[in-house]
Structures are given as C-alpha cells and as structure tokens.
Write a structure and sequence with these properties.
single chain; mainly beta; Esterase-like activity of phytase family protein; Phytase-like_dom; Methylamine Dehydrogenase, Chain H; Quinoprotein_ADH-like_sf; 27 strands; signal; 5-stranded antiparallel sheet; 4-stranded antiparallel sheet
Length: 464
C-alpha cells in the first residue's frame, strides 16, 4: 500500500467519523401536514386565474409549492412552486413546459400542540392565505411557438408595465446568453424574505438568476448577476439539447437550486444543484459551486466548492447563522418516483474562512471544498417514527425554513420546516392525495448543533 493510499484511507475514515458524530444530533419529528386545496377548491390556488394551460392543466393548479419555503412570522410562511406542471407529458419539444405564470403563496400553518395523548407532539393544518403572481414592469421576451407545436408564449394576462414570468422553456432570446434578464422563462427554486419584510429573493434554474421582487405586488425590482461562467451561450427549449450544445455554464434544469440569506440580511448564498458543464467535463463530477453576494452592492464576493457525498444533487440551503449554512443533499428516490427513498440528508457547512475557488478549474476546486458534518438524516428520522416508509417519503425534499421556537416537554426547541416538490401530481397514478404537498416540522436544540449557534433572522419591518 502506498503512502498516498494510506493517507486517502485515513482521510476517508476521518470523514466517516465526522459524519457519524454529526448524526448523533437528536433531531426529532414534531409534526407533519398536507395541503390539498384552498377556499377556491381542491387542487386550486388563490391566483384567480381561469382556463387551462397548453397541457390541459388548470391555470390555477396548486402544487409543487415545496420547491422553496421561507419563514415570515408567528406560523406564517411563503412557499414557491417551480416552473409549473411539466410532469404532465404533452410536448417534448418544449420539455412539456407550459405558460404557467410563476407565483408564490402565503401560507398559515396553524401550528398547535397535540393534546390528544397520542401521535406527534404538534399538529399543523396549512391554509393558503394569498397567491402572488410574479411579473416584470419592463417587457420580457416570449417564444413565438413556431415549429414547436404550441402557440405564442406570452400570457393573455400581460398588459403595459406588467409582463408575467412563466415556466415555458422557449421564452428566451436565442441571440443572447442565458444571462439575459429580459427572458420571460423562470424556474423558481428558492425563496427568502428580506429582513424588512418588503421583498422576496427568488433563485432560478434557467439563467441562473437571483431576482428580488416586491412582496406585496410580485413585481421584479432588482437582479443579482452571477459570474458569466454560470451562463450557457446556446439556448434551446429542450434541456438535453442545451446541455449538449454548450461547453460551459449551468446544467439545464439544475441551476441555482439553493438560496440562503444570512440572519443579518447582508449576504445571499446561492448554490447550483449540479456541477457546471465545464466542471463535469473536467472530471469534477461531484463538485457544486456556490457564491456569496453582498446584498447592498449586488456584488459576488466569494465562490466556494461543495462536494456531494451520496446524493445526486443539492435542493436547498439555509443560513444557520452568518457563517454557516445547512445543505439539503438528496437522491431522487421515493414517493413520486415509484421507488424507495435512500438518501436525504442535511449537512452543516461553514463557508466563511473557506478557500475561495473563483479562479480554480473543477479538479482543483474539488480539492478545496468546504468541510461538512451530518446534521439530519431525514429518511432515518421519518422511518423511525413508523409513520413513513421508504416508499412513502417524498422523492423531492426541496424546501427548508426555520420556524418559530416551541416548547417540547418544557425544553425550548428550534424548528426546521421541510417541504416537498410534488411536481403538481398529488393525484399520483390516479390515487387521490397519494403525493400531496407535504410539510414536516423537525425539532432541535442548541446541543444538537455540535458547537454551532442558531441565529434567527433579524426582522425589522412589515411582517403582516
């Protein structure tokens, strides 16, 4: 055995020890609930939209809202669906996307102590209070639909000074890179609320972009631009075509999936779901890059590297404090995929003081990745309750948010809220509610953080 081999084995053993140590955290499931409709009806949201999309799905379809969630106050949250009900097969030339207008929902969770004497310590009964559509005050670029078997991509609801973003994949300017902020296509994956409560930051996979929207009106007010290496130069309405036609940039449909805002409100942290094309081609197949952005100036300040352990990608990140994030690394297995969930784990990562990899190619960057410790094994915790099996745990665990502190047996307990993206298919395989919009509430104490400190986000303004 060579010296380098011995060193590598010792390093792997140390990683295993660190992860095992992190797994000893006594994070517990406190509550779980589902959301199947609103006052507008079963499977309907409060957008007020009528009619059907190109694929025959109602324009006000409720679903996918666990792509990203963020806490507001008391037990109120905001939740963002992704680009729409494209899991319904109808037109492969546009990746089965449609003119679903992007939106976010305001949800009251109705968290209550369970006094029944059995079951989990708390109950939740989610209720949608409002649906907010996302738009731009300046004109956007929509596809004509020519040669694709669909009509024009501009929503009928557009009018002067309000142009709606949609999930349709051909809504772009083919003469520009994917960094063109005039493109109407938007695939939201992360949402965070500003400290003053007036804005939401939403990350996107198409550009990838990070946009700031007025929370009350849903109007875009600002763009945070990522480095050019995250953009692809040749755009296509089919993701696989876009990947094969480019040598650099984000992988199609796997752009900025994770978004965090530090508790002081000063720094955005954005992580891609999969390796950049140039990193993948260079053999750095487990490398994910993430950047920090100064909110005041809009400038990208650092870029860091994160190496996947067993998951196929990262679906969300959230700031534990101003120096550390939690990272949701998962596979795509479980309910909705017709398989058994195996790997859905949340890691703790310190990014401040880590090596900046902005100027490093993939192989070098992966050697300078941030260290991580296991904080929560979702599959293990859920199956240990006997309420879930590996086949009933949602495949797409994608939303993370800290919520209100609670008392559990007289102990002050922090809450971590986890949501799924059900691809708008809560009637999966024809069985009613077999894959609903679901929320899980996990509880943890300061002693579960391995020396880290949880810092709630500072709130300074309107939280209604």
């Amino acid at each position: 055995m060579t010296g380098s081999t011995k060193f590598a084995q010792r390093a792997l053993a140390m990683v295993a020890f660190v992860c095992a140590a992190g797994a000893q955290a006594q994070v517990k499931l406190l509550a779980t609930g589902t959301l199947s409709g609103t006052s507008a009806g079963y499977d309907a949201d409060l957008s007020g939209l009528t009619g059907t999309l190109e694929n025959g799905v109602p324009a006000n379809q409720l679903g996918g809202l666990g792509s990203g969630i963020t806490y507001v106050s008391t037990d109120r949250f905001l939740a963002v669906p992704d680009r729409g009900p494209n899991a319904v097969t109808y037109n492969a030339l546009v990746d089965n996307t449609d003119s679903y207008i992007n939106r976010f929902h305001t949800i009251k969770m109705n968290l209550q102590a369970n006094t029944s004497g059995s079951g989990l310590p708390f109950t939740i009964a989610p209720t949608v209070e409002k649906t907010t559509l996302l738009s731009s005050p300046s004109a956007l670029v929509y596809g004509s639909g020519a040669g694709l078997g669909v009509g024009p991509g501009a929503p009928a609801q557009n009018y002067v000074s309000q142009y709606f973003f949609t999930g349709r994949s051909d809504n772009f300017d083919p003469t520009q890179s994917s960094g063109n902020t005039a493109d109407a296509r938007l695939d939201p994956e992360g949402i965070r609320l500003s400290n003053d409560g007036l804005s939401v930051f939403i990350s996107d996979e198409y550009g990838p972009y990070i946009y700031q929207f007025n929370r009350a009106k849903g109007t875009r007010t600002r763009t945070f631009t990522l480095p050019a290496k995250y953009f692809v130069s040749k755009l296509a309405p089919v993701g696989d075509t876009e990947i094969s036609g480019n040598t650099s940039g984000r992988t199609a449909n796997k752009g900025v999936e994770g978004l965090a805002l530090t508790p002081d409100g000063k720094t955005l942290v954005a992580m891609v779901q999969a390796p950049l094309i140039q990193d993948q081609n260079a053999g750095a197949t487990n490398l994910l890059r993430f950047v920090t952005i100064d909110v005041a100036s809009g400038n990208v300040t650092h870029e860091y590297a994160y190496n996947l352990t067993k998951g196929s990608g990262v679906s969300e990140i959230i700031a534990l404090n101003n120096d550390e994030i939690l990272v949701d690394e998962r596979d795509g297995k479980g309910l909705g995929d017709g398989s058994s969930a195996k790997y859905k784990q949340v890691y703790k990562v310190r990014f401040t003081g880590a090596t900046d990899v902005s100027n490093m190619a993939g192989p070098q960057a992966t050697q300078n990745a941030v260290s991580k410790t296991l904080f929560l094994d979702i599959v293990n915790v859920l199956t240990a309750t006997n309420l879930f099996t590996a086949t009933t745990i949602p495949a797409k665990i994608e939303g993370l948010a800290f919520g209100p502190d609670v008392q559990v047996n007289g102990v002050a307990t922090h809450t971590l809220w986890v949501a799924n993206d059900n691809d708008f298919l809560q009637d999966y395989n024809g069985a009613t509610n077999s894959n609903p919009n679901r929320f899980f509430v996990f509880g943890f104490t300061d002693s579960d953080l391995g020396g880290s400190v949880y810092v709630p986000q500072t709130r300074t303004g309107n939280l209604n």
